[in-house]
Amino acid sequence: MRKVLANLLFIFLGLPLALSALMLISVRPWALDRDAYKRFVEDDRLYAALQAPGIANRAPETIRLGPASFDGRALASAAQKDLPWPEIKSTASRAVDTALDAALSAAPENRAELDLRPLKAALRAKSPAAARDYAAALAAGDHPAAAQKPSDTAKALTAAIDALPDSAKVPPPSQLRRIGGPMGVLSRGPGIGNEALSQELLNRMTATTAAVSALLLAALGALGGSGALSRIARAGKYLLLPSILVLALGTVLAIPSGLILQNLLPHDLQGMVGGSGGAQLRAYLASALGPIARSFFITGLVGASLGGMLTQAKRLDESKEPE
């Protein structure tokens, strides 16, 4: 009966808490690393992959921008040539700063805004060239709308660009901390709701969650075991399962070019990974996901190794009985 109760408590309490602790340990080194996020959005290999010819071929038949509709493949082909990629990269970098500034703000209802006007201006400047390339792509594909004038297309593109907002609002920290992950865990901690998010707070919460999880697993092991070594072995089994899950996650993230990740992607994205831009995209994923994968893999490996060692304690007890 005690073993059944211990197993039930582990499923509903021990496993979620142990997973939370292991996830916090894994994300703690990079969760608030501004430079890491900027490397993700500023990597040239990402933008090279987005400009691969194969992507335009997989565009939807029709793309609607504002009140106007465009041929998907022709518009995607023109966009790859004429989008202001440097400004897009700069906007993505500023978005990282804006989001982290909002998350790290001590003001509970502080709203940060990302200025989109420079991006809109760059898009507007590129719209005449995009309109000419769009018309050329239509003519090359013998599309029924090939007779459309580039000037009309340019007006439609400009109208769609003007309809974009001048700024994007980032939710206040009180909302960011409810989205899950480390921020979500922090928002549920006692006395943490009004404290500004920081690396120190994340470190403290990680240590607290890990300590509480270890004590709970030890208590469940004591409840379900019948002797000292049996209790240690049972606690090790309870640690083994969440550690294996985290280890598996690190393994999946560490193989961005392998079949595991490709099979998890939607069908269209699978084609992108294996298409002409696939080499650039796989290189980007390996670079971007590498540190994250190593963090999960090492945490899971250490936890699984420790859990496996503890589970061997019962064998020591069994070896004493024949003696």
Q: What are the SSEs and their pairings?
A:
Blueprint: H1 2-27, H2 34-42, H3 44-50, H4 53-57, E1 62-65, E2 68-71, H5 72-82, H6 85-103, E3 112-115, H7 117-140, H8 150-162, E4 167-170, H9 173-176, H10 181-187, H11 199-224, H12 228-253, H13 259-264, H14 267-274, H15 278-311, H16 313-320
Antiparallel strand pairs: 1-2, 3-4
User: How much beta, percentage-wise?
Assistant: under 5%
Using the alpha-carbon principal axes, give the shape.
Answer: elongated
Main β-sheet, in a few words?
A: 2 strands, antiparallel
Give the strand order of the largest sheet, numbering strands 1, 2, ... along the chain: 1-2
The helix/strand order is HHHHEEHHEHHEHHHHHHHH
Gap from first CA to last CA = 30 Å
Low-pLDDT parts are 176-192
Tally of individual domains: 2
How would you state the average pLDDT, rounded? 82
Coarse structural class: mainly alpha
Number of strands: 4
| Fraction of residues in helix | over 70%
What is the helix tally? 16
Based on CA atoms alone, the radius of gyration comes out at: 26 Å
Structure explained in plain terms:
The relative contact order is 0.15. The protein is built from 16 helices and four strands. About 5% of the residues have low confidence. The longest helix has 34 residues. The two termini are 30 Å apart. Helices cover 72% and strands 5% of the residues. The protein folds into two domains: 153 residues, no CATH class; 149 residues, no CATH class. The chain is mainly alpha-helical. The radius of gyration is 26 Å and the shape is elongated. A hairpin with a 2-residue loop joins strand 1 and strand 2. The protein has a two-stranded antiparallel ribbon with strand order 1-2.
